Amino acid sequence: MSQMVDNGRDLLHRDRAFDFSAQQRAWLQFKESMRRDRTFDFMVKAKDLELDVSHGPILYIEDLNVSFDGFKAIDHLNFYVDAGELRCVIGANGAGKTTMMDIITGKTRPDSGSVYFGQKIDLLRLTEPEIAEIGIGRKFQKPTVFEHHTVFENLELAMAADKRVFPTLLARLTAAQRERIDEVLETIGLTEHARREAGSLSHGQKQWLEIGMLLMQDPLLLLVDEPVAGMTHQEMDRTAELLLSLQGKHSVVVVEHDMDFVRSIARRVTVLHQGSVLAEGSMDQVQNDPRVVEVYLGE
Amino acid sequence: MLGLLLAVAVVVPVLNLAVPEGHPLHVSTYTVTLLGKYLTYALLAVAVDLVWGYLGILSLGHGAFFALGGYAMGMYLMRQIGDRGVYGDPVLPDFMVFLDWQALPWFWHGFDMFWLAALMVVLVPGALAFVFGWLAFRSRVTGVYLSIITQALTYALMLAFFRNEMGFGGNNGLTDFKDMLGFNLQADSTRVGLFVASAVALALGYLACRWIVTSKLGRVAVAIRDAEARTRFIGYRVDRVKVAIWTFSAMLAGIAGALYVPQVGIINPGEFSPLNSIELVVWVAVGGRATLYGAVIGAIVVNYGKTYFTGAFPEAWLFALGGLFVLVTLFLPQGIAGLFRQLKRRRSGAAAQSAAA
Ligand SMILES: Nc1ncnc2c1ncn2[C@@H]1O[C@H](COP(=O)(O)OP(=O)(O)OP(=O)(O)O)[C@@H](O)[C@H]1O
Ligand SMILES: [Mg+2]
């Protein structure tokens, strides 16, 4: 546990931990100060927007509910992820794993509940790009890369940078950025395919490219939805190695159905069932939990 | 592409001014003006291709921005008439005297100054596009719905401009222009000057768009076109990118309209007609989307066809246009530009084969 907290401090003191531009910070503060429930404190202090993981968790989900046409996809969900942790989430089809990621990244608005990044940043008040900017990156279940861009360009677009309109118009790749892209290309094994259109890649290669885009974003928290679907065993091993190398400096949440894969990377496993947490613990604990055996592993 | 444009911009004026009439190589002033008009259409088409080809916004209302630019220029030209109008009022344009108005409406003030009119040519379409885009893109209106509200926009403006009370000459619009910056609009040299100005505007507009689409912002635009939600999740503010490019495109359309009006000598609410906006999407489709030069080719080819057709079989034009659109979508999904690319590829393929043999 104390090691986790140390990692949290690490995150806080990394110099890029919060490189909002002054303008963006002012805008977010303004937005925050316009909240109806805060009408009276005109200026929200800048540190409210700083990632505070001093209590351990980097992600707090509390009493979260969302339903689609009366169907409760997320049902009183409580879920915490420690800073620097690598967490695996498993659960049957339709358990609500993807929906949970949709809510964290701003794609779906919940009916009630709270989602905080660190102790102070309320994710439910931010838009998708703002959430991406404060350091949450996502790999989608169905790989979605930019099909008409080359592999290289996909990585360039994802790269952590000033993503406002005019800086983007004037952006030129620096030598360091080029090097970083080459490095990631090497990591994801697509160096020879750098100039190929992403649309012509195989399914497995697209998975890798998405992982590469996630790395380029250099987020603090990575949400990885079914990374090894469609991969060969060797590729799976490489993915496992990659994800393991990320923990500590980054916090990672991995959703995966492949049990062998989960076993190979998991410290802590959370089992989702019908939109709430059924069990949580080490792989062995979870696997021997009778409720889990009943609804999931025992099938 | 630019070389060709430059050559045309030099050769046509020379053939008009230096080659005597009656000589087989002489280009009549009528033709110069016609070509000048095509060039302004080409600039409009480039503006549409920027948002449609690269950003995925199918605008069916770009005719409105073109017409607004045209009206801003028309107002300047009206004020230049001075007391040479039919009623001889030194300040009020004829149609206002006819409506028995006593004073110039406030929004006509200052339009006797060219610089202000020129500013309005870009500011008015730009401001409208900005407000429209800000509302539409922030509420994430996309696809067919967006296309429909752009049609509604141009249709509403058409109805408004038809009304006499609006103060833009009602259904007659603005016409009977005399001169511009002191040059007689009927003079051959002025016509040639406007033609050259259109060519220069097209070249600069083309270069500006090319600069945008080859920048990182251009790659973001294509990303938005292909996978809008994904672009948001990697941290781009999609609505702002759209508003920025959309507004720029509307300004280009305004400039095209402003160059169009002195060459055709009239601007009326018909320019806001929804059909116009649809037609110009066809130009881009025929020329080939997302190439920019395809838009130029499409605008010129289709309008040349239109000039020919409306002369030969006036009733058939709309059918011909519709037929052309269907044929292109079926057989040339990437337009004329796509055909060029295919031929080039085939030739280089054949060359590679013969080299191997
Ligand atoms: N936008 C939506 N509209 C309606 N129903 C939805 C929507 N998104 C998800 N659902 C439903 O919510 C439930 C949870 O879906 P979710 O995608 O979160 O499951 P999952 O755990 O990711 O499953 P899988 O393992 O199949 O990916 C499913 O029954 C799904 O049909
Ligand atoms: Mg899922």
Mind explaining what this structure looks like?
The complex is a heterodimer of chains A (299) and B (357). Helices cover 38% and strands 21% of the residues of chain A. Chain A has helices spanning 2-13, 22-33, 97-104, 128-133, 151-158, 165-170, 175-187, 203-217, 233-246, 259-265, 283-288, 290-297; strands at residues 57-68, 71-82, 86-90, 112-117, 121-122, 136-139, 221-225, 251-255, 268-273, 276-281. In chain A, helix 5 packs parallel to helix 8 and helix 7 (175-187) crosses helix 8 (203-217). Chain B is an all-alpha fold. Chain B has one domain. A two-stranded antiparallel ribbon of chain B has the order 1-4. In chain B, helix 1 packs antiparallel against helix 7 (188-214), helix 3 runs antiparallel to helix 5 and helix 11 crosses helix 12. The A-B interface holds A 105, 107, 127-129, 132-133, 137-138, 140, 144-149, 153, 156-158, 163-165, 168-171, 213, 217 and B 212, 215-217, 219-220, 222-223, 226-227, 229-238, 240-241, 244. Bound molecules: adenosine-5'-triphosphate and magnesium ion. Magnesium ion (MG) binds next to helix 3 of chain A.
Which features would summarize this protein structure in a list?
heterodimer, A: 299 residues, alpha/beta, Rossmann fold, 12 helices, 10 strands, disordered N terminus, B: 357 residues, two-stranded antiparallel ribbon, 4 strands, 71% helix, globular, binds adenosine-5'-triphosphate, binds magnesium ion
> Order of helices and strands of chain B, N to C?
HHHHHHEEEHHHHEHHHH
Q: Quick one: overall form of chain A?
A: globular
Strand tally of chain A: 10
Oligomer: heterodimer
- List the bound ligands: adenosine-5'-triphosphate, magnesium ion
N- and C-termini, Cα separation of chain A: 34 Å
Q: Largest sheet of chain B, order of strands side by side?
A: 1-4
Our count of helices of chain A gives: 12
Number of domains of chain A: 1
Chain pair forming the biggest interface = A-B, 29 and 23 residues
Low-confidence stretches of chain B: none
Radius of gyration of chain A: 19 Å
Helical residue percent of chain A?
Answer: 25-40%
What can be said about the biggest beta sheet of chain A? 6 strands, mixed
CATH class of chain A: Alpha Beta
Number of strands of chain B: 4
CATH T-level fold name of chain A? Rossmann fold
Class per helix and strand makeup of chain B: mainly alpha
Termini separation of chain B? 34 Å
- Adjacency order of strands in the biggest sheet of chain A: 6-7-8-3-9-10
Number of helices of chain B: 14
